[in-house]
Amino acid sequence: MNGSAAGSEPELARRLGRGxxxxxxxxxxxxxxxxxxxxxxxxxxxxxxTGPLGKRLHRRxxxxxxxxxxxxxxxxxxxxxxxxxxxxRAQAALMADSVYEHEEVHREQWRRYxxxxxxxxxxxxxxxxxxxxxxEAGLAKGGYTRPPLVSAPPVEVFDxxxxxxxxxxxxxxxxxxxx
Length: 179
Prior knowledge:
Blueprint: H1 3-24, H2 27-48, E1 58-60, E2 63-66, E3 79-81, E4 84-86, H3 89-94, H4 97-113, H5 117-124, H6 132-137
Parallel strand pairs: 2-4
Antiparallel strand pairs: 1-2, 3-4
Helix pairs in contact: 2-4
């Protein structure tokens, strides 16, 4: 291969990658994926939820909320899959409106990426501070904050002229060893 042909391979790969992404993230494919995820999550919320069947799902803005789930049935404080926010009554009772705003952004991410959202989210990592989807949704709105830094007690720093004088030990007699 000559230099010009080798140089064009990365460009071809980039174009091919953009072409695949353009097809994969096209609304023609992503919207049906969003609906598949929404139906699956609504089914999960209905089957795993507790309480009367008609009360297991309700609307909150654009989100369908399944808040009667046991805590093992979703991640962290809640999980949005498709257009459904899965959580428990105890968690939902503690949530501010900003958390629902955060979850609405995740709903829009599902609409944009369809079923690709799951592998993309997992590839972004479990650390919410570095996960691009959590950052886009708003870390503070989602209740994600950095843990406080543990600091050592303050250390006193003195200039030579400010240093306190060392105590004098005039009356101190070192112990003698027994003979």
